[in-house]
Amino acid sequence: MQHVSKRTINPRAFKERAISLISIRNGESELNFTEMLPTEMSVKIFSELDVRSLCRASVTCKRWNVIIEGSDNLWRNHCLSALSVCHREVDGDRSDGLSWKVTLVRNYHKSCVKRRWLRGRYSNIRCVDDLPPNSMCALDVETWGEILEAELER
After folding, report:
1. Contacting residues for 132 by C-beta, under 8 A, at least 6 apart
2. CA nearest 107: which of 85, 136, 122?
3. 78 found inside a domain
4. Can you state the angle between helices 72-83 and 51-58, rounded to 10 degrees?
């Protein structure tokens, strides 16, 4: 069983650490760790990031983007955590041949919404106007059935 990191990193702190820890002076030019380490080691480092930090790291520079976008395993680990919530959607996307990243992008928001509903975050909603933004999305009938059952139990 693969280890999935639940650690979240403050984006500002991540950027500051990236600037101070990753840049290494080599004469007049700066090299970052991805240029000095084998790609497999860089992937291992990136695998410690949560989804949001991973997405932000992918837009840091071209080299990081190439490594992050090219490593399906980085996205697989995060997708497996969404799988526990949206297993039908993830299984369907994977059987259609979509990459782990595309599958994660398609299902991450759904998994967050479903998880919040199942935890009772929206249990005290009295009308549509009380719903916070991003609390609704297209989910299948079985998922809404699970949410309804959870609400009825509360």
Report:
1. 122
2. 85
3. no
4. 150
Q: Residue 105: CB partners within 8 Å, gap ≥ 6?
A: none
Residue 39 is part of which domain span?
1-70
- 53, part of any domain: yes
Residue 98 lies in a domain: no
Tell me the pLDDT tens digit for each residue of 45-93.
999 988 888 889 989 889 899 999 888 888 888 887 766 667 777 888 8
Q: Is residue 4 domain-resident? A: yes
CATH number where 39 lies: 1.20.1280.50
Q: Write the CA distances from 108 to 21, 37, 44, 98, 126, integer angstroms.
A: 30, 31, 22, 14, 27
Q: What is the pTM of this model?
A: 0.55
- Please say whether the beta carbons of 73 and 47 come within 8 A: yes
